[in-house]
Amino acid sequence: MEANEADIVTAEADIEQFVHKALGDVGSALTASLVVIGDKLGLYRALQDGGAATPAELAARTGTTERYVREWLSAQAAAGYVAYEPRSRRYALPPAHAACLTDDTSPACVLGAFQAMTAAMRAERRIADGFRTGEGLGWHEHDPDLFVGVERFFRPGYNAHLVNEWIPALEDVQEKLERGARVADVGCGLGASTIILATAFPRSTFVGFDYHGASIESARERARAAGVADRTRFEVASAKSYPGTYDLVAFFDCLHDMGDPVGAARHVRKSLAADGTWLLVEPFANDDVEANLNPVGRLFYSVSTLVCTPSSLSQEVGLALGAQAGEARLRGVLEEAGFTRVRRATATPFNLVIEARP
User: Counting runs of H as helices and runs of E as strands, what totals does the chain give?
Assistant: First the structure.
């Protein structure tokens, strides 16, 4: 075979390989919508609670239509989300998958991610327009499923790490919280992080701030349901204007969404007590792009394109740090704002946890 013929064969093989990859990604995108449907209709939970089922049996359990359920189950089996037994023609939810698809308290739960990301994709047309105009898209302008899904996605991780690992990794903070401290949770969304802290440290008082009024209303309801409303309140305010002085200020996965993160950091510095601490949690990222070209980076760069970067560009300054800013870039923001003691307190595969003091 001559060299040019070999090159053609290699090119065709490369094209075929990429087509298979691209079609796999199309299938993944469609699977995401089917996961959201299965969650909303209780199909996964019915499989877990009632055991393996035929399409007709699962439809009867969930009050749905057999023909839809049959197609959904076949798609889920092809995707590897449920198992199929040809002899009995029944479908089952493996126990390991059930932890991810039915249990909102499990750190492995992925339902919120599917709910949030399918909601984010509904803004595709407006994001495409933003590519041309440079205009942003505010958090509040997204489908409301985004707000619920993001809280649902982050909450299991906060439950697993916030009180047990992140707070103890900060200098003197746990002792202050146990004695009684004043805490601000800025960009609190639906209040998951605030409520977790309030539950763990009953002698401290907590204020959750967010510019999104609908999220604040939901946070108030959730605090009442959790029994922490006596020491927790939620107020509408931006990261550059929230009132008060605090022993601990926390930002959970929100600084990179802000138009003026340096301005927000300066306001944090002003709002801290003399020996106060800023707890900054951001999506995990390495400092170099090539070190983030992995499944976690793929997820975070993608959501940053659809949600985080447009959110920042919709605000004043529009610095657009993005969800993969990395520790060095974040440190630069904090130091520009006047913080002189900045360190990585700890990390998970999905989180950078930074402690900052004036």
Answer: 15, 9
